[in-house]
Amino acid sequence: MKKCLVSPSMLAADFANVQRDVEMLNASEADYIHIDIMDGVFVPNISFGFPVTNAIARHAKKPLDFHLMIQDADQYLQQCKDSGAAIVTVHYEACNHLHRTISAIKELGMKAGVALNPHTSVEVLSEIIGDIDLVLLMSVNPGFGGQQFIPHTFAKVEKLAELASEVNPNLLIEIDGGVTSENASELVQKGANMLVAGSFVFKSPNPAETISALKNV
Ligand code: DX5
Ligand code: ZN
Hints:
8 helices, globular
């Protein structure tokens, strides 16, 4: 059995009980805490901003994995750092100067990731894959939790794992959207090594056990 990293998404947490939910994650086998930031421009929804991430960071004992679904990410990288981000992932589709953005994230001492929407081919990363720490494949259209997993993601993971094996064998391959125990093992088998799960964790009767189950798919 292959182990993978698990990054539960706070988007599915109970925002009236953020401290309680972060403490549950602290006590679980989660490797990271996934933080979804949406601006209502790049995606058709608004989630939360730095006042909330700062509150999460005050209680979190796991590293924070920021997923920026926003235009103009460059403007907010320092605030991500100040809010405790260990990883910052930006969208390929939202960055005009991706190499500059990636360099800025790394200069701030964080891991740099690039996210791809379901319609974006992994080949667009061929010239930058050696410079990044992580690729996040969206397995739903970004903007909302609780959506159905898009099965074509399996083929994309395989392609990405092949591309990475030549240039960047330590690449983190993170899958985000509709991840459950139904698709997790096939994702890991095809090359994913980091799974985001929002609804599947937080809507389950025992979130900590669900996290353990995902870690050991
Ligand atoms: C969606 C976000 C995801 C979301 C996943 O735009 O990027 O991280 O929280 O939620 P589930 O696991 O419920 O699909
Ligand atoms: Zn996300």
